[in-house]
Design a protein that fits this description.
The chain is α+β, with helices and mostly antiparallel strands. The protein contains eight helices and ten strands. A four-stranded antiparallel beta sheet has the order 1-6-7-5, with no helix packed on it. Strand 2 and strand 3 form a beta hairpin. The longest helix has 22 residues. The C terminus is likely disordered.
């Protein structure tokens, strides 16, 4: 799933490539992806692109006061092309959800596609005059890169959730998903199953610094990359996430995994749990 660093990089990519262009035709290939009907998608056509933004993991393009907002969900992505097909796509079961064509001042006619891999289609598109009218944005907590350490401590003190769950709960903290929460907890040397409100003050401070370090490093590596290379850049920076069975780059212990119905997370026992292995089942708890 694209998280804060990748979505921030995509927003910057749109600022560099789309701002100043005029929206041309908008092709909807997956009707289920469009969650709003008034104003219609066709209202974007003919508008100048004036900006792009990010709210947590939501990406938005400002078309002169009318926003195209998308949440890419788990399998979604933005793909830019300088030579798009002039033939409107046929609605179907393929990966394409939406195509936005542009006219640039230089006379070029690029486009971007919003695509989604997999069979579970969760990518969402909204056309709104205010990003806060998107229900998911309205529910967001403070952005992970904007929250102060004091606010962060207050957020953790107010929840009884495990710290792994709290970090990815968007109503508490916006922008962090499964992958970067693994990396943040590994950097902070904290167990994913630690209770958020029970973390000592020094551990909260350690976690806050780890969060900023991991996210800012990922943003720095991602911004400026071509949109097509962002996924590879994300994978290359991971130390434990999606590295089950490989050695931890810090201590050399084997990276372990806890699996759930639709996802999994990774951690290092030596760095994070005092050598204890977390039980690999839905109701996991530390083995005694």
């Amino acid at each position: 799933m694209p998280e804060l660093p990748e979505v921030e990089a995509l927003a910057q990519f749109l600022r560099e490539h789309a701002v100043g262009a005029v929206v041309g035709r908008v092709d909807v290939a997956a009707l289920s992806a469009v969650k709003t009907f008034d104003p219609p998608v066709t209202a974007l056509s003919g508008r100048d692109v004036t900006g792009a933004g990010r709210w947590g993991k939501f990406l938005g393009m400002d078309c002169g006061g009318l926003w195209l907002i998308t949440h890419l969900s788990r399998g979604g992505w933005l793909r830019w092309t300088d030579n798009p097909s002039a033939t409107p796509p046929k609605p179907g079961k393929g990966p394409l959800a939406l195509r936005v064509h542009f006219f640039t001042p230089e006379g070029a006619t690029p486009a971007f596609d919003l695509t989604e891999a997999g069979t579970k289609k969760r990518l969402a598109v909204y056309i709104v005059d205010d990003p806060k009218h998107v229900p998911g944005i309205a529910r967001l907590g403070p952005d992970a890169l904007d929250v102060t350490e004091t606010q962060f401590a207050e957020i953790l003190a107010g929840t009884t959730q495990r710290i792994k769950t709290a970090l990815v709960e968007q109503s508490l903290l916006a922008g962090i998903g499964n992958a970067y929460s693994d990396e943040i907890l590994h950097t902070a040397r904290i167990s994913p199953f630690a209770t958020a409100k029970s973390l000592p003050e020094d551990k909260v401070s350690q976690l806050y610094e780890a969060m900023r370090t991991v996210l800012l490093d990922a943003v720095q590596r991602s911004v400026g990359q071509d949109a097509a290379r962002l996924k590879g850049e994300k994978r290359s920076g991971m130390r434990v996430h999606a590295r089950t069975g490989l050695p931890c780059p810090v201590c050399g212990d084997t990276v372990r995994e806890v699996s759930f119905a639709e996802r999994s997370f990774q951690y290092c026992p030596t760095c994070q749990t005092g050598g204890k292995i977390l039980a690999d089942r839905r109701m996991s708890r530390l083995l005694k």
